[in-house]
Amino acid sequence: MNTVTYAKNPIKTLHKNMILNQDGYVWAYYRISPEDTNPNNFEKLERFKENWAKFFRKTLPKYKEFDLFLYPKDKQLVNRFKAFQNDLDKDSFSMGTKYMSRTVEALKSELGDITETDFIMGIRIKDVYDNQNPIESVKRVSDDIADKVLIWLGKKQPIDLAAFHNVQQLEEELFRVIHSRKGKRLSEKDMIYLNRLNYIRNIDHDIMTEAKSIERINDSIVDPVSDVGFIHLRSDNGNSCVSFIPIAEFEDHDISYNHLFHLAQQMDFPCELRIKGSYVEVDGVGGFASKVGVQKRRHKTEGTESLQAGDSITQRTKNNLILTEKLSDEIDQKEPIIRWMACFVVYGKDKAQCKRRGDALMNTLDNLRVRAVRPSAKQLYLFYKMLQGNSIDHARDWIQISNGTTLAEVLFAVTNNVGTNVGWYFGRTDGFLESETREQSLLASRNIVQFNPYVANQGQATAMTDSPHIAITGETGKGKSYLTKMLFFYLSYMKGKVLYIDPKQEMREQFLFTANDPTMQKQYPDFVRHLKNFHYVTLDARFKENHGVLDPIVFLKGVDAKDTAQAMIQSIYNLENKEEVETFINETLDQVIEEREMGEKVGLLTVIKRLQDSEIENIKRAGNLLFSKINKSILHLGFSDGEIEGLDLKKRVTILEVAGLDLPEQDTSMIDYSEANKKSVCLMLPLGKFCEQFGEADRKEYTVEIFDEAWIFEKAKGGKQILKSMQRVGRSFCNILVYCTQSVKDLQDDQNTSSFGTVFAFDWDKERDGILQHVGIEVTDRNRKILSNMKKGQCFFKDIYNRVAKITVDCLFPEWDLAMKTVERTASSDAEVKYA
Fold first, then answer.
1. Distances (CA, A) of 642 to 545, 553, 600, 634, 724
2. pLDDT tens per residue, range 133-148
3. Helix locations, 314-469, DSSP H
4. Which end of the chain is more exposed for a tag (fewer CB within 10 A), N or C?
5. Which residues sit opposite 643 in a β-bridge?
6. pTM
């Protein structure tokens, strides 16, 4: 019959962020805010390691012992969505909350617990019973016995606040140092919960309930004997299986770039990593220096004896001699030496799942030439040893010896998070060099990406930019349009107005096709109604009521009207070496704009007609040529007599398309533009100014303009100025410009800077170095390879906090997939996938 045992808990009592353990030591615990950086920014990582190495070498030695651990913390996604609901529009609130609920359900189905990484550091402050006189020592023993009697009688153990009071000044001194490492004191509830979590790993529970009582911390059954190599935890909330996997050795004896904490985050299941360290006593007869000297002489003797016997020295003896000599040198240089134990903790709903996860972890470590083991007989020992407040001073197994610089290689408190703390689900980060498929990348990651486009408008204190504007770049076919439409759908449920400029005329046709699909109507009626509620506006020059809706003299004033009109004329008529014509155009523009402001019905076509009426022959010819280009063409949308008052978009979500646009390819030279290309580019310019007006309509209302094919502004004369005008609206008007283009170069101004606070950069083989530079990742062969290996739907995401991560875009809703389609699948493409 199996026996069941309770694990020993080292806590004698707990107060605020401190533990008094059964041995009389006070430990203080802190949450360390991680450094969020891309793992391929090696120079930045090295600087980070240097800072931690200094901390391990200069700060911690006086405290003797420390505890570093990472654990997968419940992300509390439901509560985050509740906080985010305030940004939903009242008319779309019900649907928005439904999509939030579906997001949680889908992610729980795929990931189980939805977690994020939390880093905790514990430091032993001192033995509060140091230097006690004999009478006080006797009293301490008596108090300990009295405490045990009270426990046996089922009464509360009194809190020994005096012990904490004695170390208060030391803790405050320590906190000032920890603060420099982005550390914050844990609250008393945090401390109770973290200690309780050891006994309820992977068991559903309510955090608030479990953080209430110190008496409940170890109220679980810990069973180490039912299955060898595993521990079964049983609480009133359920059961789970846990396994402790310590590192036995680094086979290459080189711990550089092991990045153990990063590795723990890359596993596709919840995984803890705990490192406990203790500074060794170097001096004295039994000191560490003496022991190293003995070992050094022994290895030398072994080598000498092998040579004398005619044998070669074994590699193991050589490695041992090198290591002992290195340690001896470091001791001579007064370098602090650390004994430390690294132990992973994996868990599952049962032994089979726990074993699979443990095997996967050990295989991953083995590929890195790090040998880890799952001890059969010492699981309870490790469970106990890894509890907060416990020491590894007398541990002998699985101990590593190194200096602080080497220990810093574990990369404690580094993550690759990106996005916002609350927001819609956009996908998951991908920390791997490459994956065979996009789906494989999703399955390999637990780190979800959330994004709220409105956050930048709200002035985040820790943000690196106040710019709310979003850029989406990359080669056609990489997933740029899919992400843009997914962002549009999320925005359509939020407060404020959204305008989508669709030059390719894709959205209305595909959305209405989806809305009229009988299967969609049956399965997703709410979504179908949502699609039909969008305000679809098609500007078609064939209908006279559209003539002049984009006329800059009609909907703009003063300088804006003139600059835009000049840019439009220059895009269809070359004014080079035609100073007389250009002067007449500029003077006539001034007159017509002034007349419009006086209430007369005039427009940009009025300017062209006055050129035709000129008695100067070359001006008259220019007017006739321009009129011939405009007459019976798409240009009537922007050139009018001023009879139409222009667009008035009062609906909350509008999709605006222009019929008959024929935009050139981005890499086509302007000299090779067809007449249709030139006319299309001409009309994109007032569309840009219309976006600016849309964003300025109400300073207090959120407005978003999504501009597809926005690269036109980089090509057309005057286009850059229009882009700058759109961007200037920005934060002061609660306005966001979503700018979709191929090249990251289109995002930079004349000073080679960018005013886009958020960037989604998909691959484009023509400018990989430029993409890396723009998002802030080192230009190396490895990072070029990461870009080249990106699958469709993968990109670099740079957020307002200047964090960058490779992400896999993920839409959880099948009804959106149909609406966001840009390419129809064919029988040939399906067959290609089937037999791949």
1. 12, 8, 8, 16, 27
2. 444 444 444 454 445 4
3. 315-332, 351-367, 379-385, 404-407, 438-443
4. N
5. none
6. 0.88
